């Protein structure tokens, strides 16, 4: 399984592609992505998440009709917006 970019932790609204690839495949194996995420990917060998949300967090793995590969855990975290970052910085500055 390939993640593009190759990060298992991303922030909300970022883009990531999950893709299955078989090494030494003769092309006769059909691959699809299985997931424990709340938002299920389509039964395809590639799944593009264009605006990630926390619901996309979960375990992803490539499967064929006979076997499944290793699990990759994807974590999508909320990132602080500028307003909250400024407030947090101000509070920490006062406490220092």
Automatic annotation (TrEMBL):
<dbReference type="InterPro" id="IPR003599">
    <property type="entry name" value="Ig_sub"/>
</dbReference>
<feature type="domain" description="Immunoglobulin">
    <location>
        <begin position="5"/>
        <end position="77"/>
    </location>
</feature>
<protein>
    <recommendedName>
        <fullName>Immunoglobulin domain-containing protein</fullName>
    </recommendedName>
</protein>
<dbReference type="InterPro" id="IPR013783">
    <property type="entry name" value="Ig-like_fold"/>
</dbReference>
<dbReference type="InterPro" id="IPR036179">
    <property type="entry name" value="Ig-like_dom_sf"/>
</dbReference>
